Amino acid sequence: MSHHQPDPNKSVNLTINGIPVTVPEGTRILEAAKKANIHIPTLCEHPELCKRALCRICVVECDGRGKLIAACANDVWEGVSIVTNNSRILNIRKTIIELILANHPRDCTFCIRNTKCELQSLAKLYNIVNPLFQNDCADNPPSIESETIVRNMEKCVKCGRCVEACQEVQTIRAINTSHRSKEYEISTPYGQTLKDSSCVFCGQCASVCPVGAIYEHDQCAEVRACLNDSGRKTIAQVPPSFASALENALSLAAGTVTAGKINTAIKLLGFHKVYDMKIAAASASAEIIGEIKARQNAAAGGKLPVITGCAEGVGNFVKNFYPDLAAHLIAEKTARRIFASVTKNGYAKEMGIESSAVTSVSLVPCLAQKYSTEKNKTDFALTAAEFARMINLAGIIIETLHEEQFDAVNIKLPKQDISVKKETVCGFAQGRKVMEAIREGKCNADWVEILSCPDGKCN
Ligand code: SF4
Ligand code: SF4
Ligand code: FES
What we know:
- It is a single chain.
- This protein has 13 helices and 17 strands.
- By secondary structure, it is α/β, with parallel strands linked by helices.
- Strands 2-1-5-3-4 form a 5-stranded mixed beta sheet, sandwiched between helices. Strands 12-11-14-15 form a 4-stranded parallel beta sheet, with helices on both faces.
- Helix 7 crosses helix 12 (384-393) and helix 9 (278-297) packs across helix 11.
- The two termini are 42 Å apart.
């Protein structure tokens, strides 16, 4: 194994199950195997996170010495001969899976991750039909941590992905590990709920969890109840990024789902109106720029830059970690919330009804945007996974639908003021840097926008 800094310009020659492979120095065994078209199963590994090597599912043998090493955490070296699939290795992997299953609920058919669970796939791959060990799993109900996130630690396989996503990628530390050996568990500081913690509800923990231990709180039933209530009008708003999120949720090829088809599906579900959230960004910008202008003109000097977010959890971030800068915050002014109130009031006026008789449902591209700090909520936000479940249940095959237009929305947009300096950062690690700059007076933007997801792709 090489301990020096790998040089990616240098090639390394090796064999995997007898197949010769040449890869750049610093390539992990897992990647080298892919190059030889050999699949090595994994569980704790995640391509966007660091190597943790906690589960040992990916063990392989090297140089016929019988020593097992983790393919996800070790780089190849010159001349090594790797074996990934002899009966000893297969038996060891099967035993590891059996041991995890012995401590895992057997309610797959009721699990939100059913058919999309990495542990279930491994059990199927290793043909575990008669589990070897007795199941000693407690039957604790899941804990609904907020309207966005549910945790069910009985299902946790202790892969550590969520801890890394929360601590290292997002730098929030709302999730940690506690105890050792048999007692080792994934928990929160002082065992508090996420609601009471420093959580910013970015949803990154749920997006990396391989099983049904952290997931979005499904609100399809509540939305369906509104649609079935004859005394209530239900309207929807759809952002441009929703089509690709829905393709992912439905495992459809890129370009299969269009805004027009989503509109048709929404109407088939019984919604009264569907609005284009493309307008929302412009209308929210106008409102935020108005706020900036007011702060610029304020004699006592309103706090600038203003800080906004793609999601309201950005407000939690500023209040928890930078309370001294809270006066900069206008986190509730998300495009989604502003637009929901504009369309709801506009539609109520058009129909001559109270706006309290209208439910607004936002379709959102990621879990972060589902979170809202609004009090007395009557509105909902559905992720692509939830919306996919709604249309599947209604028997709607979205790719076969015709295309319908959005309903018109009556908003007069003021001319954009381009003299405002805006800085956008992705994820909370970047968010911290910009907050430090504001604190030190080194940020010269008028408007700082923090996007919750580290890759910022959903915006
Ligand atoms: S939602 Fe984000 S901040 Fe909250 S626990 Fe998960 S990763 Fe951490
Ligand atoms: S909650 Fe999910 S991501 Fe976190 S350690 Fe458990 S199985 Fe892994
Ligand atoms: S996938 Fe390699 S140790 Fe878990």
